[in-house]
Amino acid sequence: MLRTLILLLFLIVYFILGCPVNIILTIMDKKNPGIKTKVSEKLVKAGFKCCLFIAGAKITVNGKEHIPLDQPVLFVSNHRSYFDILVSYVASPIPLGFVAKKEMEKIPGLSTWMKNIRCLFLDRDNIKEGLKTILEGVEQLKSGYSIQIFPEGTRNHEEQMLPFKEGSTKMAEKAKVPIIPVALKNTDALFERNKYLAMKSSNVTITFGEPIYIDQLEKEQKKFLGAYLQSIIADMLSSKDEII
């Protein structure tokens, strides 16, 4: 419980101090476009590192060498915890935004930082708005900024992943960028699996798979790309090998 209270206190202070910082960054961005995003990336990563330290996350990162540094990619991951985003952002050697549910856009403070690092908000109940978000993601990838998605659609603590939504990979197909499968292990042991809202120090692992180029896949793999990616991530999760 102590870790939870300390983390809550840290977040309150972070968001309070973030208000004047965001005002200053907005003013600076008018004279120097892009500086808000660059500074926000550093501040968000620093904040995430602090959160993970407070939570007691001991992170092992595998396969970082698989991530191309000279082009944007679509990261596709399983989803077990709120901490998935923090672990992914800290572990990635390149900047990225996330596709989040539309409801998160209404959270004061948090949504501002999410917009600063180019997160996208998906309305899952409105097909038209959902398509608009996909097109925004395509343009973002084409502009050179990577994105991470969680095709299960929600956090899942079961051993088996939920079926991947087939439309989740459309951004990569239309932007013609490679897909990096991501396997997250044990992130929910930090919080979600514990009783009484207590955080518990835990070992977590994030593994980046080899890039997948859609135009090189077989016809059946392209047709059911979501299921194909899910099978790859399932294999990564079941693997006992760890490359540190």
Order of helices and strands: HHEEHEHEHEHEEHH
Radius of gyration using CA atoms only: 18 Å
What's the total helix number? 8
How many beta-strand elements?
Answer: 7
Q: How far is the N terminus from the C terminus?
A: 31 Å
Inertia-based shape: globular
Helix content: 40-55%
Structural class computed from helices and strand pairing: alpha/beta
- Average predicted confidence as pLDDT: 92
Strand order of the largest sheet: 1-7-6-2-5-3-4
> Unreliable runs, pLDDT <50, ≥5 residues?
none
Strand content bin: 15-25%
Largest sheet: 7 strands, mixed
Structure description:
Pfam families: Acyltransferase. With 244 residues, the protein is of the alpha/beta class. Helices cover 44% and strands 15% of the residues. It contains eight helices and seven strands; from the N terminus they run ααββαβαβαβαββαα. The chain has helices at residues 2-31, 35-55, 83-91, 110-116, 127-142, 170-175, 219-223, 225-238; strands spanning 57-62, 74-77, 96-101, 120-122, 146-149, 179-185, 202-208. Strands 1-7-6-2-5-3-4 form a seven-stranded mixed sheet, sandwiched between helices. β3 (96-101), α4 (110-116) and β4 (120-122) form a beta-alpha-beta unit. α2 (35-55) crosses α3. The mean pLDDT is 92.
